[in-house]
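Before a colleague's protein record goes any further, I have to sign it off. My question to you is simply how this chain folds and whether the tokens agree. I do not need a full report, just your reasoning and any doubts. This is what I was given:
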Amino acid sequence: SSSFNSSSIFFSFLDGNKAIMTSNKQKQEQKNGAPAVAAAAVKQSVEKTYLPGRHKAVVLAFIAYATVYFLRKCLSSVSINMKQDLNFPETAIGAISSSFALGYGLSKIPGGIVSDVLEPKIILFLSIGCSALCTILVASLSDPTTISFIWTIHGFFQGFSWSPCGRIVNDMFPKSEKALWWSLISSSQNVGAALTPVIVDFVYSKRIPYPLPIFPSAEEHTEWRTSLLALAAFGLLLAVILVIQLPTLTTTSKSNRDKKRVESQSYLASTWSAIKQIPFSVLVVVFTNMLIYVLRDSIGHWSFLLFSETKGFEVTTIASGLAFFEGGGLIGGLVAGIVSDKVFDGRRGPVFVLSGVGLTISVYFLSIISTPEEFFVAMGLMGFFLFGPQTIAGLFAIELAPHNIAGLCGSVVALFSQIGGAMAGYPLSILVKSRGWVSLFYALPAIAAIFAVSSLFVWDSRSFDETHVVPNSDKKKRN
């Protein structure tokens, strides 16, 4: 088919481009002009093939991943209601939060495998659709153990959602545009997380009765349950729209899948050997990024209870503060990339250190605020300094790693980020139960300070390519 041929040409072009960069023979051939002409022709063919639908696809992917965050953050937005109406203790709410991180982490490896086999639109349909169904169930139940179990399944399905969005950018955009569109889709998480409490509060204010009589236990305290149902209904509708409107991309051929399976088995056989090669600087990035997720998810999970209990803020005020948090994060992520590239000449360590200092100050500022205006400023600054290093952490680890274990290092960063997210749930709830909510105002600045001090170890760290430059004389000997 024409779709298969165009995709084959595209991937052939990428493979050829990679070979040109690594082969001296092909570099010499490129000087003759013919390969350059052929590359230009292939690029023109790719542009002609994907231009009509690629921008529509990336907009749908943006909306899809924002919706993923609607469904991810909705439960923390009603944590006050769950405590008051269902008499959930803090430990029960913390266990529910940690259960999501557990399910999300378990899905990362199968999610990557599935993304190579199924169409992005099919994966997004299943991921968002199943997440929405889990949200409907959680909105209809009152037992914390059952909710934790379902929220684990919810996290598992959510873990499949990013890979298809990334594949849309990778397959449908030329190399010169990929970074821009990748960053824009990534920013959808800030948009989704910022809008979720606002939407929940808006639906809650309408006092809409619970519309599902098949769950008699949910007939009481219906307003906050209806807020969750509204987000779930939107998720189900979007899942159907995605499977209809997103373009079909050519999946990996059987021969390539077999090749990847063999490579995967060989990789697993040497996993321990690869782990021992991980540089100390990468381990520092893994550790600091884990602390970032402890802080990020602590604010995401506990803000409504923390600031209502200690500061007496209304739900609307706290929701607005979270919007400032995510808005500051959106700006901070963009600034971190630009500053590390332009100001520090590609060094990411200084951004980590400076962000750690700013993060420590802003988190401490949260403990001494007394007005909503001060709260908004503190939340915005915290988001700015927190999401900056989070945005570049994966890239930083991959740059520091030897090429043969770069993918492994990126996966380790992702794995420990979920461990950090889990630590922000049940473990912190135990602290709150034993020491009270005010204890978080001591714990969170301490975690931020540890992050800042740990980041000093990578202040001067540069990419593997910069620190392992092969002299020209050695290159000639190899040739």
Notes: Residues 1-27, 251-255, 260-265, 475-479 have pLDDT under 50 and may be disordered. Residues 34-77 form the longest helix (44 residues). The two ends are 42 Å apart (CA to CA). The CA atoms of residues 382 and 471 lie 44 Å apart.
